[in-house]
Amino acid sequence: MSILIASDLDRTLIYSAAALGLTMPDAEAPRLLCVEVHERKPLSYMTESAVGLLTQLTADTVFVPTTTRTRKQYQRIRLPGTAPKYAICANGGHLLVDGVTDHDWRTQVAGTLADECAPLEEIRAHLATAADPAWLRKERVAEDLFAYLVVERELLPEDWVKELGAWAEGRGWTVSLQGRKIYAVPKPLTKSAAVREVARRTGATLTLAAGDSLLDADLLMAADRGWRPGHGELAESGWNAPHLTVLPQQGVAAGEEILREFGRAAALGRS
């Protein structure tokens, strides 16, 4: 049996210094290893145990990092274990094969977005008008596919994201708040579509997945089994599904437990 594991990265398997605050008190803090450096500064971490677990999984399964990050942001990460043959970036907009963009997939995605969604420039124009400079810090476009804002979370009006989501809904877009970032993403731009393509190419007969944000919901729904940590958008909204396991752990402890669950499920699938 070929087993495919598709996992979100940020706040699911890897954690920034800010996100480490989700975890246990300092007295119980696990040993951490840095897996991402940018401009000579360490950015993201995994526990020492998680590194060992992921190393084993990359040897035993088709492990597919599945992220909303751009290709450039993803390539800063150095995950332990065998380098993945496939990786999914830009929320499914780019499928990397041995680190190189698959242009057939990119062309297919572009055609779907042109047919089913309002154009990116319309969304950007609305964001520029609706955002308040008092709390907006940056406005960015990722891979010419979607837009996001970096905000001062404590200054963000309580209903602003909800109102933006209602506006975007009728234009074929979805909105997600993750930490200090507000994402506006076309609805057809999904991690699950890219994962199904990888499953087709690899002949995978079992797909396992994990994620913490609303942008991971479609991925979790499409998998045979899924896991989410005790933190994040999905936890805050109480999102659930019949084949989903809701973990009580938060922070890096959740990332470690997700990898253990992947290992158990993969062993059961092989048997």
Walk me through this protein's architecture.
The chain is an alpha/beta fold and 271 residues long. It folds into 2 domains: 3-110 and 188-270, Rossmann fold (3-Layer(aba) Sandwich), CATH 3.40.50.1000; 118-186, Hypothetical Protein Ta0175, Chain: A, domain 2. The chain is built from 9 helices and 15 strands. The protein has helices at residues 48-60, 71-74, 103-116, 120-130, 160-169, 191-202, 217-222, 233-237, 251-270, and strands at 3-7, 15-16, 32-38, 41-47, 62-65, 86-89, 94-97, 100-101, 136-142, 146-151, 173-178, 181-186, 206-210, 225-228, 244-246. The strands form 4 sheets. It has a 5-stranded parallel β-sheet with strand order 5-1-13-14-15, sandwiched between helices. A 4-stranded antiparallel β-sheet has the order 9-10-12-11. Strands 2-4-3 form a 3-stranded antiparallel β-sheet. The chain is globular, with a radius of gyration of 18 Å. The termini are close together. The model has no long low-confidence stretch (mean pLDDT 94).
